[in-house]
């Protein structure tokens, strides 16, 4: 009938599926975590919808996740009675990948020869629903969107096409049935129709899920016969609501994976609670690597807002500033309306106060991190944190103390501004820096010569944002931040100044001549005190843009 359509996966989805079918992962168990995580999200959404829209005809009385294993048919089904999907949503959400960075990720994977690195990469990206094709050679999904009457049946072998069919009857929510591959197909494949296996995987990965995950299991009865019994496999405790000493490291890590969609461990965990007039709990994480969309214009922030255990929204920009967009986690605020909108949140005084506290806490955590962790952190997120120097004037001091910069002092070791100041030579009053595309270009630049000759340390700044923050901040610890490429740098002693003046007299005619000859190209020709080996160099005025900034603006079409 025309209600059944066979459609092609979007090109990028197809490639990602290929990777999953011929899986590069050794740990295939994680497909179950992905399904449970999706089911849990769908239940969160349904609960919120039912609370906010009283007219929505849904049953929110017994929201849960159900796992059903059929040994004979070799199928495993994960079912939820959550929000469900419309036919268009199925096509849009399951048939395509909306994540930014997909194309780039796939290109990297195609060119790579290192399987372990590939696992890492794709894990960071988060494979979600497609992980089912690691363990199944056919997947069927039946779903009905809350409030709609008909349902949608989707099926695929993961090989390029899928079918979608509109069906008259479907229970509320979504069920995903995996037609499992034979167990001997692969060493890493467990028997996912085995109760104990399923129970262990759920415990390991999904214990904190806030909805009951149920399974009907065989149990020995009193008289030796087996009886069927429905059990809840998870403890369901919202981690953030427990006190720190009730939560162990492994639980934090699993929770992180759930909220961050990341398969790597977090670098730091921040668990805090605010009491008094405005109560809240926050469980935040600093990831160990940057996501692919860190600099994408529509890149998302990673903090979810809950109100008394009810999920309200992802990507809550009111709680965390843009320059900390890599922070992942949950904030559960007790005294907010479930209907709260993003706009209202932005204006809410108490939410602003929470945000200030979260920022302070994150910056404090960064300050106290071990040198090794911090090095990893800075490599991954340094360029983003420096955006804070433009965005968040209240925390300039704290942010400046977090900055690490390459320097001529020790090529192998980035320095803090504090350490730079402590190394400043007698008579040095300013902090010198050079900006450019990369270290090699900067080090070969003639601008550095005089500083090198004098033994002055120069910071080597290569991130595009560096140009902007040094201008904005202007000084550290009362010492001006001075570009080596701008204006006249005063490096001379009195004696040298006299000598220079004498030289200027001596060469006055030459300078006038050169100035005349180059009048269309430069503003002024003067004798330089910067150069030791190069015969000449072009410098900017103190108020000109540095060459890198000029290039940046040109690239932006200005
Ligand atoms: P992610 O969860 O990271 O968005 P997935 O591949 O796991 O990626 O899922 C893609 C999308 O499909 C989800 O964002 C969700 O909108 C939809 N989806 C998946 N499973 C379900 C489900 N059980 N109920 C409702 N929607 C679902
Ligand atoms: Mg998912």
Automatic annotation (TrEMBL):
The segment annotated A runs over 1-342
Transmembrane region(s): none
- Predominant location category: cytoplasm
Q: Which UniProt keywords apply?
A: ATP-binding, Chaperone, Cytoplasm, Nucleotide-binding, Stress response
List localization entries: Cytoplasm
By its UniProt entry, which Gene3D superfamilies does this protein fall under? 3.30.230.80, 3.40.50.11260, Heat shock protein 90, C-terminal domain, Histidine kinase-like ATPase, C-terminal domain
InterPro entries hit by this protein: HATPase_C_sf, HATPase_dom, Heat_shock_protein_90_CS, HSP90_C, Hsp90_fam, Hsp90_N, Ribosomal_Su5_D2-typ_SF
Any one Pfam family here would be HSP90
Q: In terms of domain of life, where is this protein from?
A: Bacteria
Q: What are the residue boundaries of the Histidine kinase/HSP90-like ATPase domain, all occurrences included?
A: 27-184
Record's subunit section? Homodimer.
* HAMAP family with a match to the protein in the record: HSP90 (MF_00505)
Q: What does this protein do?
A: Molecular chaperone. Has ATPase activity.
Family to which this protein belongs: Belongs to the heat shock protein 90 family.
Name of the protein described by the UniProt record: Chaperone protein HtpG
**Organism of origin:** Micromonospora maritima
